[in-house]
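Supplementary Methods S3. Complex input for the 1-deoxynojirimycin-bound model.
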Amino acid sequence: MVLIPMLSEATWESAVVYQVYWRSFLDGNGDGVGDLKGLRSKVAYLSSLGVDAIWLNPTYPSPQGDHGYDVSDYFDVDPIFGTLDELRAAIHDFHEEGIKVLLDIVPNHVSSQHPWFKAAIEGDEDGPEESRFIIRSGSGPKGASPPNDWKSIFGGPAWSRFPQKTADTQRWYLHMFDECQPDLNWENQEVHERFERILEHWYEIGVDGFRIDVAHGLYKAPGFPNMETFDGNWSACWDQPKVHEVYRSWRRISDRYEPRRFLIGEIHTSSRDRLLDYIGKDQLDAAFDFSFLHQPWSAEGFMERIAENLQLAEMSGSTPVWTLSNHDETRHWTRYCTKGKGEPTGELDCGTRYRSLISLMASLPGRIFLYNGEELGLPQAEVPDDSRQDPAFFRQPPDSDYKGRDGCRVPLPWESERDNAGFSTTAPWLPMPVGWHRYSVDLQDEDPESMLNYYRGQIEMRKAEDWMGNGEISDLSSNGGVLSFVKSSGGLKVMVNLNFNDRPVPMDTGEVLFRSSKSSLVERDLGPGEIAFLILHEGV
Ligand code: NOJ
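Predicted complex, serialized as structure tokens:
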């Protein structure tokens, strides 16, 4: 039994979780890809940032066709990343620092190199090996066309040919993502049992919980109706009622452990209300709020997203989660700090907005998920087409503007004077753009005004000031382009104001406790993009 230094329940409820896209974090063995050796050498860095937990993208053996989201063995560790023993040791290192470790579980699909899929290809037609997957006869003469019109999320058809055995019609297997990721058939009880064992395996090792990939997936609508029936959307492919039984069972397993293990879902549903079906006491602890992440720069928009997320948490009895970047999305520096396509709004404005956003998250109740590199202020990187790796890029039609997700996955710069900015002694798996070294950790460490030190300061303040992570929130508004709310804790009342306008606005009340900009603004003016924390005194 692994003993985990306990974060108190209250601290875990307001935890700062740091997502490690390990391929791009730090390469310790000189092959151009991040690994456990690199990660273990940075436990102190993550501790100095103040994070309470890390979430590792899939660490299992995988042909890396979708960079780990194509798993070929759920019980082990990919040799590119390290060994199972090294992962055990890393979990121990993190626990020693009081940092929890979440893994990523991928239940919707496996790799086409998984022994189950290989066995399905070898096994009898309609035999037990095939029944772990979704295999159907094609439509049209001799089944030459896919069974229905479903499209892969990555582009192109969601069906690829499956070996014809005895039938004289062509058969197809379903893959909602790349063809190297066949979807599992969750109507098959064996699939349930296998995933329950996978959870237990990692919990015994000491893993503190899971981020669940495509948690809204797993089941498909009976009869596989065409997407056309649903105005071309994916309603038939996702969010089916039977999925909740899976999470009830996962919750029962997670609750059996001490401390109880944590489950957070990547859930995309047609409406926000449907998220309610997934979270709460008997299913998942939390879900990512992608509408917050996708919210453009607008006081009213952010106010609405915050109100909805708080309401969802209250109705479900869960804790809100705030996040602005991850390994699938354009980095939020680029989303909030450039106008249209790559046109900068100006350095001061960018830095101020970006700083205000982490301060905003730090002052909201609930959990914050940070994506590695965001603490350095990394923008979305330009990746030349011939260096791209993302399968989603390769499945786009020729006229598509979508370039895939590589730009947010470019490796982290650690040391400005070293080759490849200290990430690796050899060429990184994705090239770093010219000038990437100027974001390096060593430079930012030394500069008290750097983004890294700003992030550290905000996380430290959140821990020191109970009103930030835990206080009661009230008076949420967005008058005149200023997002505003009050947080109360003990006898203290603090008003948070974020100015979304391009011009300064006067701050009418409160004593300034903190503001995100050090520019030479009029003392009682809140600058463009600036946030301030203002203490409200009785009678004011
Ligand atoms: C969501 C993951 O975040 C993404 O990176 C992956 O490609 C798909 N699920 C498929 O597993």
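Confidence is low (pLDDT under 50) at residues 340-348. The radius of gyration is 24 Å.
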